[in-house]
Design a protein that fits this description.
The protein is an alpha/beta fold. The protein contains 9 helices and 10 strands. Helix 1 runs parallel beside helix 9 and helix 3 runs parallel beside helix 4. The longest helix is centred in the C-terminal third of the chain and has 21 residues. It is globular and about 80 Å long.
C-alpha cells in the first residue's frame, strides 16, 4: 500500500502536502496564455517544466514561464525531458536548482530510445544515485516494473512514476496489473506518468490506488485543452473516490439487484 494513508485526502510528496492529485506539464501549448488557462482549469498545484525546452530565466529578455506560473503560487517541478545520458540529466537538474534558488525537488527521466521514449533504466539508476548524493529530492520516471519501482524507493527516491504507456502515445494504462503491484508494495507516492489519453485513463489510474497522475500531451493536444484539463481534474477526483469506496467484486454471472426472498406476491 502506498505511503499515503488510503483515507488521506491530500497528496504528500517529500513532506509537502497538496490537495490536488493531478500534476500537469507545460509543453506543447499554443502559447503561455493557453498554458495558464489549462493549468488553472486543471486545479493542479504541481507543474512540471522541461528545463532544456522552456525558458525559466536561461534566456534573459525572452518570455519566461515563471512570469505566468510563479513559484509562489505553484510548485515548479523541473524535469530532464530530452536527456539520453546520465551527465546531461544531472547537469540539467543542477541548472534548475541554480535557476530556482536552491530548489531540490526534480523529476528525473533518462530516455533510452528516440522512437518509443522508453526509459533507460541503468542510466536512470545511475543518475538517481548521483542526484540523491547531491541533495536532490528525486521523483523518478520509470517503466512499469515492480522490481525496479522497489529499488528506486529503496535508494531514496521520494516518488516513483511508472509509465502507463509510451510518452505522448495516449494509449492509456497498458498493464494495470503491474501498476497495482507497484502501488501495493510502495511506501512512497506512486504517480502514473506518460501515456494517459483521456479522462477515463486518469480515472483508471486512480481506481488502481495510485497517488496521482502526471500528464501533458493529453491536455495540451486535446481539441480544447482548457476543457480537457477540467475533465482530467474531475476524473482524478472520481477515480480517487471510487478507490476509497471499494468497487463491488467482479462476478461471471448475474446477481439480482433486489433480493428475491420475502416477496410480497
Amino acid at each position: 500500500m502506498s505511503a499515503n494513508n488510503p483515507r488521506q485526502e491530500s497528496l504528500v510528496i517529500d513532506g509537502r502536502t497538496f490537495s490536488s492529485r493531478l500534476l500537469v506539464g507545460t509543453g506543447k501549448y499554443r502559447d503561455f496564455e493557453q498554458t495558464l488557462a489549462a493549468v488553472q482549469s486543471s486545479g493542479a498545484q504541481i507543474v512540471t517544466v522541461a528545463i532544456r525546452r522552456t525558458n525559466i530565466g536561461q534566456e534573459p529578455g525572452a518570455a519566461n514561464l515563471l512570469d505566468v506560473l510563479p513559484p509562489d503560487r505553484y510548485t515548479i517541478l523541473p524535469n530532464t525531458a530530452g536527456c539520453y545520458d546520465v551527465a546531461s540529466a544531472v547537469r540539467t537538474c543542477r541548472l534548475a536548482r541554480e535557476m530556482l534558488g536552491g530548489h531540490s525537488l526534480v523529476k528525473l527521466e533518462v530516455l533510452g530510445d528516440e522512437k518509443t521514449l522508453f526509459p533507460d533504466i541503468p542510466a536512470t539508476t545511475a543518475a538517481a544515485e548521483e542526484l540523491i548524493r547531491d541533495g536532490f529530492r528525486v521523483m523518478v520516471y520509470t517503466n512499469d516494473d515492480p522490481v525496479m519501482a522497489r529499488r528506486f524507493e529503496a535508494m531514496g527516491c521520494v516518488a516513483v512514476m511508472p509509465l502507463a504507456a509510451p510518452i505522448g502515445s495516449g494509449m492509456g494504462i497498458r498493464n494495470p496489473y503491474n501498476i497495482r503491484i507497484i502501488v501495493e508494495n510502495a511506501q512512497v507516492p506512486i504517480i502514473v506518468d506518460a501515456g494517459v489519453g483521456t479522462a477515463s485513463d486518469a480515472a483508471v489510474a486512480m481506481e488502481l490506488g495510485c497517488d496521482g497522475v502526471l500528464m501533458n500531451t493529453a491536455i495540451a493536444q486535446a481539441r480544447d485543452p482548457v476543457l480537457m484539463a477540467s475533465a482530467m481534474r474531475k476524473a482524478i477526483e472520481a477515480g480517487r473516490e471510487a478507490f476509497l469506496a471499494g468497487r463491488m467484486p467482479r462476478r461471471p454471472y448475474g446477481v439480482a439487484s433486489s433480493p428475491i426472498e420475502g416477496l410480497f406476491f
